[in-house]
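Hey Z.,

So I finally got round to the fe (iii) ion thing we talked about over coffee. Here's the setup:
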Amino acid sequence: MSFKTKLIQQLTSFKIPHLASIIAGAIIFSTFTLPLFASEGSVNLYSARKEALIKPILETFTQKTGIEVNLITGKADALLQRIKSEGRNTHADVFITTDAGRLYRAKNAGVLQAIQSNTLNNAIPANLRDPEGYWYGLSMRARPIFYVKGVIDPKELSTYEALADAKFKKRICIRSSNNIYNQSLVASMLAADGPKKTQQWANDFVKNFARKPKGGDRDQIKGAASGQCDIAIANTYYFGQMISGKKTDQKKAAEAVAIFWPNQKNRGTHVNVSGAAVTKYAKNSANAQKLIEFLTTQEAQQWYASANYEYPVRKDVAATDLLKTWGDFKADTINLDQLGVNNAEAVKIMDRAGWK
Ligand code: FE
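And the result:
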C-alpha cells in the first residue's frame, strides 16, 4: 500500500468528524490537498467491491498510465451516504458499486455526473449502462433458479412467474425483500408483467417460502442442500465462489444443486451488473473517465469478471471455463435503468405480499 493510499484511508476513516478532527483535517488538507487530490496524476476511487476484487487491476492501470489510484473500500450503502454527506468536498472521483438499483439511487441522489464516451458506448451493451451516461456496467451476474439435484426435475421448472405455482408450496428459499437483488428481480418482473400480475405473483410466491427469509444468497443454496427447501434463488457468482471450494461445507452445498435458467422462452433470465460512475464533484474527472474506460478493455474485463466469478459485459470477452460449464443462457435485455425506476413500486409489492 502506498503512503498516499494509507494517508487517504486514515484521513477519511472518520465517519462523523468532531470539531477537533475537522480542524486537524483542515490543517493536514491545507498542506496535502494539491498533491493528493488535485494532481493530474491520480484518481480517487470509492469502491463497494472488496479490495481483492479490484486492487490488482488498479495496479495494472497505474503501470500502464502512470495514474495513481487511491482506493477506499466500504459497504455500498455507507459509501453512497458518505459521498452524499461529503458533497462538494468529496474526495471520490469514481464510485464503483453493485446492482443497477444502487447505481440508479446514486444517480437520483445527484452525486454522479454523466459522461459521454465512445469507448464505453462501444464496449458496453446499451442495456447495461445508464441511457444518459451516468453509470456504466463493468461486470454482469445472473440471478437464476437453483434446484436440488435428484429432488426437482428441471422439467418442472420454467419461469420466475411459475415459482408462484402451488406445487412449490413451502419449497423455496430466498432472502429478504430488504435486499436490493430481490428488489431488482421484482422490478424486472414489473417491467415484464405489469403491477397487477406482479402483485398477484408476489402474494402467491411468498406462500411458497420454506422459511422466513434470512441470510445471504449463499445461505439459500445451503438451505436447499440441507433439505430445508428444494429451490433457491441466488446470484451466479455466489455459486461460483461456493463450488470453487475454498470452504468445504459451501462446496458440498453447491454440489447438491444445479442452475436452471428461467424464462428462456420469453424475456430471458434476470441479470444485473456491478458498475462505475464519475462523481458529480470529481476533482480528477479526466482520470476518472480513463479509469472506467480501462476497466472495460478486453484485458481488464477478463480479469475483473473472473476475479468474482462474473460474466464480462463485453461480448467479445469469453466467460471463464467454470462459467461456461453452467451453459449458455438468454439474458433479459431490459435496460437496467428500469430496475431503479421500478424499485419503489417493487418494494411496495413485496411489502404488501408480506415478503419479510
Ligand atoms: Fe453480492
